[in-house]
Amino acid sequence: MALTEIPDPVAQELESDAERVASRRGVLIALPSWVYLTVFFAVPLVIVLVYSFATRSSTGLTRLTGWNLDSYRRLFDPLVAEIAMRSVVLAVATTLICLAVSYPFAYYIATRAPKWRNLLIVLVLIPFWSNFLVRTYAWRIILGSDGPLAQITEALGMEPVRLLFTNSAILIGLVYGYLPFMVLPLYAALERMDWSLVEAARDLYADGWTAFRKVTWPLSRPGVIAGSILVFIPSLGAYVTPALLGGARTTLLGDYIVSQFLAARNQPFGSALSVAVMSVMLVAVIVYFRSGAKNL
Amino acid sequence: MTDSVVLTGVTKRFGDVLAVDDLHLSVADGEFFSLLGPSGCGKTTTLRMIAGFEFPTSGSLTIHGEEMALNPPNERPVNTVFQSYALFPHMTIEENVGFGLKMKKLASADIAQRVKRTLDMVQLSHRAAASPSQLSGGQQQRVALARALVNEPQVLLLDEPLGALDLKLRQAMQVELKDLQQRVGITFVYVTHDQDEALTMSDRIGVMSDGSLLQVGGPQDIYEHPRSRFVADFIGEINLMPAVAADRDSVKLLDGQVLMAAHGAQPGQAVTVAIRPERFTLYRPDDELPSGRSSISGKIIRRIYHGDVFVYDVETAEGLLEVKEENRPTIEIFEIDAPVTVTWNPSAATVIED
Predict the structure, then answer these.
(1) What is the pTM of this model?
(2) Do B79 and A203 touch (CB under 8 A)?
(3) Is the CB of B82 less than 8 angstroms away from the CB of A218?
């Protein structure tokens, strides 16, 4: 034990030197990402925050004088509430449908032999190989008035189904687009499940359904929470899908914010809307994680 | 004694793999029965079929006279202690132990009382509100035991429950488990690959290999009268010498020496003579041997000191023999290369028909 013979102050200095070197190395490694995040994430965010307190001139320019809360006051406009409510309902519906579809599928993958699991996961990821915009345009064709869906229903002697430019079309597009974000975390949670726990529950007189409710479901909850957040947040602010599949009939938060910047040329109000949506999401995420974390 | 678990012609296939092959076994009520064998011998599959986690491909399985081969686990009067304990990580110790009673829809006052009593029995009442991850391996083991026993099952199934514990704790738990089993009087079916564990705890042992039950008997019977090479070799150390059956009481070794050894083989049949290392006694070549002892001469080529015993490897005409001599103050300690006579009582030799 030669080390213990070194006088304490010397040892302490050596130790703090080592710490300093290690932390300096850490800073260097993280430097590129720090720079990137600062320039492309933090700075724009601050700009949005600053703009939300600014005034719009009569010509549509933003004047960085006369700071006020007018834009935030406008958030309580009934029109905004209606758009927000519609967006939330759609995002909640998207999340619930994704969960209902993904859970059995993730469960199925996680209970296959390991060699099949990877193949099935690759299948889930295949849609990512082509561009999101292209795939959304494909849905326009499928759901369109002359599309396959309408043709099939017509051929079956039914009223041809025309979904394009409806809320249902948006919902279909959102569920389609975000399904993998639900499947992957659910799979990750179920894949590391200790199935002997389910056997233990069955052994202790639980039937299959009760064992699922008491053991499988609570233990897969981290995956449910992660997947729900990954689907809910982009659904709430979705822009491309509603713009392409929903037409111009229903406004959602995403298009409303975009229209404030591009059409209405009211950057302060658009900024205030963005800040409000982000704040609500942040609070929701924190609450959701806290509620789930208790039983993890 | 009534039968508790009876397996008749039970076979289990996984695809092309024959895991359990035409197993016939009957476990008596209140018995501590061990299934012993190397990994992959089908012992765990057998246990899982009794528990209801696997269903036999064919055959019958009764528990207390009732056919149960195809019942789901929740419809069997058995409980399992899992190798990994399988404690529910999202529940407290109390909730874990009370799970089975809750599923049986007992009144919550009854549940609380029985959980408390069972936790007292395993000396863990003070940890009732803890979560499983806060407990040590030995404590988790006892919770797993309590969670099964609280339901007062007719049969308790244990799948290598001590495998994850360190040696000292394992030995302590062996004694504790055996005491517990005698106190509660429940039939235990215990799966293990550890022959020591099986020998110290069991009333009877079934030795399995390649999906078949090779021999069933009490620990002494299994250890001292193995009926096959596999059982002889798997349980403890043993010396095997090839031989040919002579008349009813003797066999002829390959070098022509005739040994006294009882057997049931036909004269001329190839057999193996099996003798445990501790049944040998070493003498100097010029010592006078006590009458009636069989002997073979050889030379010490290795000596290993184990504290309680000396283990010698002795080179003889019949091959290498392992000899274990207890470390008593009076014994003679032989050096490497010393010529010796290896002797044994003829009753110590077991003849195995090949």
Answers:
(1) 0.82
(2) yes
(3) no
